[in-house]
Write a structure and sequence with these properties.
The chain is an alpha/beta fold. It is built from 10 helices and 8 strands. The chain has helices at 18-27, 55-63, 73-84, 142-153, 163-187, 202-215, 219-227, 232-251, 255-265, 273-288, and strands at 9-13, 33-38, 46-47, 66-69, 92-96, 114-120, 132-139, 157-160. An 8-stranded mixed beta sheet has the order 3-2-1-4-5-6-7-8, sandwiched between helices. Helix 5 (163-187) crosses helix 6.
Length: 289
């Protein structure tokens, strides 16, 4: 594919955020015209409020054949209908969302533009190369296909899912993991404890690194993943139940039950357990270096 064919006139709203800057870099050399808007003024970025689009932003949206909304979920929800009102029928609208089953982010029948949503399963500072992006085809067509090819041509692994399927999987690979890591971090936050990184085990250090990565990120993103995803409550409950079952086996001094729980926990990992364990060892060795 010729990457220049992805769009002639592109608009990025929320262009001064992490993913906004990432897509500005990706599109800057492949679009004839690229307009960037944000509520925060920055070099190469015009002032524009997605929740209250002025005439300048509205005109840019109307002329674009690609619009990417790099907005927090809460802002996207409030701004979506206003943005849609300005988009022309020959455009592709792309939203970045943590939760896809959001009733506020739905195009109306009279709005004829194409519409896809993506969830990059990584923070923007890591870049696209080799990273996974989930794409939900809301109202697809030729422009949506070109955008998916553009992402793949930029190095991303694109996985196309239905919105319901995305949210269920995201609950398992994001909400559950974030919840467990934050639980460990909170348990270690007691004033009587010191974080002694110098004498940590590798697994302990990795968990603290994960917690720090989350805590240095955008809190609203993690809130949306936990609060807005209809499946997140289910996986949080599963985590609490699993922790209780393990604790009960230990409290009862029931070694056989404990070993049975370890065996059950390994079932989903068995096909690739050795490979994953070696990858973990490789990571530990790189940390030592």
């Amino acid at each position: 594919m010729e990457q220049s064919s992805v769009a002639a006139r592109a608009v990025i709203v929320g262009a001064n955020g992490g993913f906004g800057r990432l897509f500005r870099g990706l599109l800057s050399n492949v679009c004839a015209e690229l307009a960037a808007f944000d509520v925060v003024e920055a070099p190469g970025c015009s002032i524009g409020d997605a929740e209250r689009p002025d005439s300048f932003l509205s005109e840019a949206l109307a002329a674009a054949d690609l619009v990417i909304l790099c907005l927090p979920d809460q802002v996207l929800r409030r701004a979506f209908s206003r943005i849609c009102a300005s988009i022309g029928p020959e455009c592709l609208l792309v939203t970045i969302q943590s939760v896809m089953s959001d009733p506020a982010v739905v195009v109306q029948p009279q709005e004829l533009f194409e519409f896809v949503s993506i969830n990059p399963l990584f923070a923007p500072d890591l870049g696209l190369a080799g990273r996974t992006i989930v794409l939900v085809n809301r109202r697809g067509g030729a422009r949506g296909d070109l955008f998916a090819k553009f992402l793949r041509g930029s190095g991303a692994q694109v996985c196309e899912l239905e919105s319901h399927e995305h949210d269920r999987l995201a609950a398992e690979i994001q909400a559950l993991v974030h919840f467990s890591v934050l639980s460990v971090a909170l348990a270690l936050s007691k004033p009587t404890r010191d974080v002694q990184v110098a004498i940590d085990t590798p697994p302990s250090l990795v968990v603290k690194m994960l917690a720090a990565r989350i805590l240095c990120g955008h809190a609203d993103t993690y809130w949306s993943i936990q609060r807005e995803n209809q499946f997140s409550k289910e996986v949080r409950q599963a985590f609490l139940e699993a922790a209780t079952v393990i604790d009960e086996a230990i409290q009862a001094d029931d070694r056989d039950r404990f070993l049975a729980l370890l065996s059950k926990a390994s079932e989903n990992l068995l096909p690739c357990a050795a490979h994953l364990a070696e990858r973990c060892a490789t990571m530990f060795r790189s940390m030592d270096a």
